[in-house]
Every structure is written in structure tokens, then in C-alpha cells.
Specification:
single chain, alpha/beta, Rossmann fold, four-stranded parallel β-sheet, 16 helices, about 40% helix, about 15% strand, binds iron/sulfur cluster
């Protein structure tokens, strides 16, 4: 990897587009024949279109079960880059579908709900990030994949929670770094690697909700439970974790570890795969400030439903479009990420 500065200078702030029609989509969703066998229809459409369905661990269990591949952001990026399918149906949020389009521009990339955004993406507007970068001209920007294509285009290297530590460790020690947009992940990686990074102050609305006070209460009720937490959680909560890692790392941990009970501090969609992998174990969603975990369901991921998945395949919309210039700029840091994390194995959840 060549770290000679400057990296590709950020240039344009052109946006990507989702081609769709939300009001029409909502209307159509209500008009689906309730007797329709959605699973059978989705399978038929998948075959007719030569499509692959990719689903993130934070999707509902029924969507995960009919997807061709379920994984975290790194796994899904690799799948999107290497699939032979003509159509990628991305059950996740917009930045994920956009990443798939950047990596596989010749394919039709569909997203079941065009409003499926992400609070981390929203916390980092491109115009503000451009000004921020200009304040640190000698820094390179390592940016978490949970951001828009425009932010990727303004970055030097993309990372995920799976490969962030490994990527930072490959950067020469005298090279200053900006880390964006998640300040909790940035702080966690900074502590692990001993690198002093300038952090963009974004957060995830889901992981920010977990309450340390409620977590301590829950641990008192379940003293035999271990805590598995995602590094998007605030540092005071991570202090209570027995294991910290990406969604695939959490899944591996609870499967291989010897305990029988776990408190899971990330979006509860992952518990579906945990229960499948270790049905004899008990998994408890970490609580929010109100003592319950329902507020920790990602409101964006929850927008995707089986009905919308069926409709997006039937109508081939909403479809992701990324202008060529933006795509070329966003591809560079994504390619660097894929090269710098080649030795990290892909999780094996294909359904
Ligand atoms: S869980 Fe947080 S980071 Fe993930 S998509 Fe939802 S808002 Fe974004």
C-alpha cells in the first residue's frame, strides 16, 4: 500500500440517487393480495431475474432466512463485488446498497425501501466533512463504511468494524489520521492501536441508546451472562463487555464460547442468527434507558419488509444510481479496504 501524500484530492460533491416512488410503493404494499405466498413469489422472481438477495444481520429474521447470503458490511461488500448475478437485491440500508453499486456498477441494485437511511450517514454531511478535511491537510481519512458515497469519495481508506483495527495498524505510525463518522468506534480503535486520531463526532442512534445503568441492573439479574458488545457502543458501556467486536465477531464469540447466556449490546436482529447457531443458549437484548430493548431496533433497517422486498423485485425499483465520477472516486478507498483486509476470512452464513 502506497501512503505517499497527498492521496486523491477530494473533488466533487455530486450525490447518488435512489430511483423510486415512495407513495406509490406504500400504496402498492397495501394492495398485495394477502393470500399471496410471498416467499414463493420472491424465489420465482429471483430465478427469473438472476438476482442475489444480500441481507445484513440487522434485518428481520424472515428476510435473513430467505436471503442467499447474510453477513456484516465487509462480507456483503465482498459478495457484492464478486457475484455473477445480474441483479443485487440489498436488504439493508442505503449506504450498503450504494456500496454494492459502486463495486458492481453494471448490475441493477435494488433496495426494498428507499428511505432506509442511517443516523451515522446523516451525521456526516459531505460539505461539512470537506471543510473538516481541509483543516487537517496532512491527515489521511479512514472512514467507516457507514457513510454516503460522497463521503467515501472524500476519504482515503474505507473500513468496517471487522477490519478497522487491522487497517489502522497498516498505516505508518508517523502518518496522522482522521477517523469518521463514528466517534465511539474511532475512540475504541484509537485505544486498541494506541493511535491518536482526529475523530468526527458522529454516532449511531441505536448503539447510543444502550444504558450503562440498565446494563448493570441486568447483569445483577443474570450474573451468569456474558456481555457481547459492538464497538459503536459508547466507551462506558464497552467497559462492561466480555467481548467487543463486529456483528460477525459477536456471532462467532457466542457460538464458540462456553457460557450459556449472553447480553447482546447491538441491534437485536443479530440474535436471530445467534439462536440458529447456538439454539441451546440464551440471548438477551441489552436494554435502553427505559429498561427495555425495543428502542434499540434500528428504525432504518426495520423499514424493509417481506412485502417491500417482493415489490422491489417485481417492479425493479427503488434502484440505486451512482454517477460515474462519484463512483470512480468512491471506488478507490473501497478497493484499498478490500486489499488491506484480504487475509480476514468471510463469515460463512449463506442460506
Ligand atoms: S444500526 Fe446504526 S449504524 Fe447501523 S444502519 Fe442503523 S442507524 Fe446506521
Amino acid at each position: 500500500m502506497d501512503f505517499a501524500l497527498p492521496f486523491s484530492a477530494p473533488v466533487s460533491l455530486v450525490s447518488s440517487k435512489v430511483l423510486g416512488n415512495a407513495p406509490l410503493q406504500a400504496e402498492a404494499e397495501n394492495q398485495i393480495d394477502p393470500t399471496l405466498d410471498l416467499e414463493a413469489e420472491i424465489s420465482r422472481l429471483k430465478k427469473d431475474m438472476n438476482a442475489v438477495i444480500l441481507a445484513h444481520y440487522y434485518q428481520d429474521g424472515d428476510i435473513q432466512d430467505l436471503a442467499d447470503f447474510v453477513g456484516d458490511s465487509l462480507d456483503l461488500s465482498r459478495k457484492a463485488a464478486n457475484t455473477d448475478a445480474d441483479v443485487i437485491v440489498f436488504c439493508g440500508v442505503k449506504f450498503m446498497a450504494e456500496t454494492a453499486k459502486v463495486l458492481s456498477p453494471q448490475k441493477l441494485v435494488l433496495l426494498p425501501d428507499e428511505k432506509a437511511g442511517c443516523s451515522l450517514e446523516q451525521s456526516c454531511p459531505p460539505a461539512d466533512f470537506k471543510v473538516f478535511r481541509e483543516k487537517y491537510p496532512d491527515h489521511i481519512a479512514v472512514t467507516y463504511i457507514n457513510c454516503s458515497a460522497e463521503i467515501k469519495a472524500l476519504s482515503d481508506i474505507i473500513c468496517t468494524s471487522t477490519n478497522a483495527e487491522q487497517i489502522i495498524r497498516q498505516i505508518p505510525k508517523d502518518q496522522p489520521i482522521i477517523f469518521a463518522p463514528d466517534r465511539h468506534l474511532g475512540a475504541y480503535i484509537s485505544k486498541k492501536t494506541g493511535r491518536d486520531m482526529v475523530l468526527w463526532q458522529g454516532t449511531c442512534v441505536v448503539h447510543e441508546q444502550f444504558s450503562v445503568k440498565e446494563m448493570v441492573k441486568l447483569k445483577t439479574i443474570h450474573p451468569d451472562a456474558k456481555v457481547a458488545a459492538h464497538p459503536e457502543c459508547p466507551e462506558d458501556l464497552l467497559k462492561h463487555a466480555d467481548h467487543i467486536g463486529s456483528t460477525s465477531s459477536l456471532l462467532k464469540y457466542v457460538t464458540e464460547d462456553s457460557a450459556q447466556k449472553y447480553i447482546i449490546a447491538t441491534e437485536p436482529g443479530i440474535i436471530h442468527q445467534m439462536q440458529k447457531a447456538a439454539p441451546h443458549k440464551e440471548f438477551i437484548g441489552a436494554p435502553g434507558a427505559d429498561g427495555k430493548c425495543s428502542c434499540n431496533t434500528c428504525p432504518f433497517m426495520a423499514l424493509n419488509t417481506m412485502e417491500k422486498l417482493y415489490l422491489t423485485m417485481k417492479n425493479k425499483t427503488p434502484a440505486i444510481e451512482v454517477p460515474d465520477t462519484l463512483r470512480a472516486q468512491a471506488l478507490l478507498p473501497l478497493d484499498r479496504m478490500l486489499k488491506m483486509s484480504q487475509n480476514i476470512p468471510t463469515s460463512k452464513i449463506s442460506t
